[in-house]
Amino acid sequence: MSSATTTRTRPLAGRVARLALAATLSATAAVAAPAAAQAASPYERGPNPTVALLEASRGPFATSSQSVSSWSVTGFGGGVIYYPTTTSEGTFGAVAISPGYTASWSSISWLGPRLASHGFVVIGIETNSRFDQPDSRGRQLLAALDYLTERSSVRGRIDASRQAVAGHSMGGGGSLEAASSRPSLQAAVPLAPWNLDKSWSELRVPTLIIGGESDSVASVSSHSIPFYNSIPASAEKAYLELNGASHFFPQTTNTPTARQMVAWLKRFVDDDTRYEQFLCPGPTGSAIEEYRNTCPSS
């Protein structure tokens, strides 16, 4: 009560001065707050995300590509690099992607420009042999990342501390192998993954597994779901099952796959929390059979 009384009896000039100071501080805080929010991650690239942006055939960045001859590299069979052409956004994270058993990169090459247009430097690899097993594909994915970040002509566009892997079928199994071997990776995205090893309890890399409900080659019940269940929740993980999809869903443009891949890579490679809204609670609709998620810890 005495404090309130003292406040009411202060000279008018003093009260005005204090009110003016308070208003100035409030205005300063109001301006600083959005700036602080925008600076939440130094790796944010591109505009605020929307469903329409993620489901469009291309993201906000123009891209270019270049072929990599198998004769110019070691540890993998060459491939194609896709990258944003802008030089005003800083450096980008790197992603290496492997095709599946007996397949070439062309079978899933739509993923290259799709991901690059959202702000990643992507290398889609050719494997040393069409018959390489997941462990070999995992080593080749890591060799491709090392080439991309250390020796490629686009290495200056890349932040080598932010790397991820992905792949289809045995390439997806290979992405699990790569993530197990190199825990410094920021993300892994196995697509319809196949691997004889069903337990990945050692994995610490945030992993999004996408499976097809009607996959008769790497059935979700014996591959994707056991893989997902074995990864510790502390690693951050998600499982997306596509309604009625076969083993070959990554070989044609697939919007749910692209949408979740971009959101996952943005969240964990770019540390861009603007994309959490697409991961938790996650996608719904007729194309989605099931979605499980640990929900990212900001």
From TrEMBL:
<feature type="signal peptide">
    <location>
        <begin position="1"/>
        <end position="32"/>
    </location>
</feature>
<comment type="similarity">
    <text>Belongs to the AB hydrolase superfamily.</text>
</comment>
<dbReference type="Pfam" id="PF12740">
    <property type="entry name" value="PETase"/>
</dbReference>
<feature type="domain" description="PET hydrolase/cutinase-like">
    <location>
        <begin position="38"/>
        <end position="296"/>
    </location>
</feature>
<keyword id="KW-0732">Signal</keyword>
<protein>
    <submittedName>
        <fullName>Alpha/beta hydrolase</fullName>
    </submittedName>
</protein>
<dbReference type="InterPro" id="IPR050261">
    <property type="entry name" value="FrsA_esterase"/>
</dbReference>
<dbReference type="InterPro" id="IPR041127">
    <property type="entry name" value="PET_hydrolase/cutinase-like"/>
</dbReference>
<dbReference type="InterPro" id="IPR029058">
    <property type="entry name" value="AB_hydrolase_fold"/>
</dbReference>
<dbReference type="GO" id="GO:0052689">
    <property type="term" value="F:carboxylic ester hydrolase activity"/>
</dbReference>
<keyword id="KW-0378">Hydrolase</keyword>
